[in-house]
Write a structure and sequence with these properties.
It is built from 9 helices and 5 strands. It is globular. It is of the alpha/beta class. 41% of the residues are buried. The chain folds into 2 domains: 81 residues, Orthogonal Bundle (Methyltransferase, Methionine Synthase (B12-binding Domains), Chain A, domain 1), CATH 1.10.1240; 119 residues, Rossmann fold. α1 packs antiparallel against α2, α1 packs across α3 and α6 crosses α7. It binds CO-5-methoxybenzimidazolylcobamide. CO-5-methoxybenzimidazolylcobamide binds next to α3, α4, α5, β3 and β4.
Length: 209
């Protein structure tokens, strides 16, 4: 098992999309738990970040690693679903304005869907106006925002303020997450909840309803 997980880790680091897909598929066929594979993939992205910080990787390397991760996630997705849960609510999700990081958000979306939520995924670089419009159109009970950059985190508060201005703040719960955030920041900007990871986001969403 260690061998195959190492193969997935290396394929992501090297940005080998096809190989990542193949290795994830092989791991599943060998009976490796989807969550174990996911943890290894997240670990690989952490290493990509470290290499970027140290100046060994540049944006193109980060990008091809991210694409490999996305390919692997596509294979993993059906296996991450929880089997025993009913539709529990509607969520509008997105990465905030100015932020193009969507792997973490995609994971949260997958896990929420797996947890029985209907998710309207707005993608990345989502403006406050787009969040507001989506809540109006879908009647979602939860807004889920992700941010990976310290420079884009403030757009979460801008979005919360836009929801207030549109008279929607009392009608939706707001949950936030992303590597630079913590619970204290979430409270400070007036969010209803924060989760450090995707499985926690599902528990949080359920508790908010
Ligand atoms: Co960028 N990047 N990046 N990047 N990138 C980081 C975030 C960085 C920490 C790298 C570094 O310096 N070590 C750094 C940010 C520094 C900072 O803000 N202080 C950084 C930078 C600087 C940049 C650029 C500015 C680089 C440049 O152009 N000079 C640029 C910005 C572009 C933009 O957004 N406008 C940029 C670009 C990119 C790529 C496009 C190349 C690519 C993204 C591709 C994509 O997402 N499609 C990329 C990548 C891949 C990364 C790293 C390496 C990996 C991010 C990732 O996907 N992690 C990242 C370094 C790192 O994080 N170690 C880095 C895996 C993912 C599963 O984790 O997203 O944290 P994460 O999600 C977690 C939790 O946070 C949580 O659940 C997930 C797992 O369970 N979570 C939630 C996330 N959202 C949640 C929402 C919730 C609940 C939980 O509720 C709603």
């Amino acid at each position: 098992m260690n061998q195959i997980l190492k193969g997935i880790y290396d394929a992501i680091l090297e940005g080998e999309r096809e190989n990542t897909k193949k290795q994830v598929q092989a791991a599943l066929e060998q009976g490796v738990e989807a969550r174990t594979i996911l943890d290894k993939m997240i670990e690989a992205m952490g290493e990509v970040g470290r290499l970027f910080e140290e100046g060994e990787y540049f944006v193109p390397e980060m990008l091809i690693s991210a694409r490999s991760m996305q390919e692997g996630l596509g294979v993993l997705k059906p296996h991450l679903a929880e089997a025993d849960v009913k539709a529990v609510g509607k969520v509008v999700a997105g990465t905030v304005k100015g932020d193009l990081h969507d792997i973490g958000k995609n994971l949260v979306v997958m896990m929420l869907e797996g947890g029985g939520f209907e998710v309207v995924d707005l993608g990345c670089d989502v403006s406050p106006e787009q969040f507001v419009q989506a809540v109006k159109e879908t009647g979602a009970q939860i807004v889920a925002m992700s941010a990976l950059l310290t420079t884009t985190m403030p757009n979460m508060k801008v979005t919360i303020d836009a929801l207030k201005e549109a008279g929607l703040r009392d009608k939706v719960k707001v949950m936030v997450g992303g590597a630079p955030l913590n619970a204290q920041y979430a409270e400070q900007i007036g969010a209803d909840g924060y989760s450090p990871d995707a499985p926690g986001a599902v528990r949080l969403a359920k508790s908010l309803l």
